[in-house]
Write a structure and sequence with these properties.
single chain; 213 residues; mainly beta; Immunoglobulin-like; 2 domains; 2 helices; 6% helix
Length: 213
């Protein structure tokens, strides 16, 4: 029996040849999942023929060959897409594998410092953080965005003590100086966070509020 190895999104599948989607075995729980708006790398290798003899296609979206056995899959809508692998042999093309890929949108990202969503934050721990990041809950890949700007505000007893503007993701010397003056009970807000997504779009994302303890 032929064995095809499909390394999808960095995780391996062992797939019997001439199979249906219900018959393959999955090596990890997050398999066969692709996201809209980013390239989803797929590597297809057959034990019975070279990569040049394989014809790989998807029922929706685009599949761009990036290497000998490597492809970037870019879906355009949510749902389920069928991936088909065929072998070219003796002037004929024969389907040797089909499987289904779930397609989802990247969850809406929000700002974070040190991976915390918000709420209470130990002062000593906050003071050693280097900057602001964007995170998306339930996203199984590295989030393909870059933080390009943010505002930092510190309040004490409802009185604003500091307001800083950050360029890029890292805290500037001025931001760090304000952060080093934090006391328990102070509120720190990260607002007006701008990111550049993988497709080049600049967008504002949800900020975050911390109470120092």
């Amino acid at each position: 029996m032929k064995i095809i190895k499909l390394l999808s999104f960095g995780i391996a599948l062992l797939l019997p040849g001439i199979t249906t989607a219900q018959q393959f075995t999955v090596g990890a729980p997050v398999m066969n999942l692709a996201y809209i708006g980013v390239p989803n790398p797929i590597t297809v290798v057959s034990g019975s023929c070279g990569c040049d003899a394989l014809q790989v296609s998807v029922s929706e979206g685009t599949l761009e060959k990036t290497g000998n056995c490597q492809y970037d899959f870019r879906p355009s809508r949510q749902g389920t897409v069928q991936l088909t692998v065929a072998e070219k042999k003796g002037g004929k093309t024969k389907v040797i594998h089909t499987s289904r890929i779930r397609v989802k949108s990247i969850p809406e990202p929000h700002a974070s410092v040190g991976g915390r969503k918000g709420g209470e934050y130990p002062i000593d721990e906050f003071k050693v953080q280097s900057g602001v990041s964007a995170v998306a809950e339930g996203f199984e890949m590295d989030l393909p965005v870059a933080v390009v700007a943010f505002d930092l505000k510190i309040n004490r007893s409802k009185v604003q003590l500091a307001e800083e503007h950050g360029q890029g993701a890292y805290f500037s010397a001025s931001c760090k100086a304000s952060i080093n003056k934090l006391l328990p009970g102070d509120t720190l807000k990260i607002e007006n966070v701008k990111i550049i997504s993988a497709d080049g779009r600049v967008q504002l994302i949800q900020g975050v509020v911390y109470t120092m303890k």
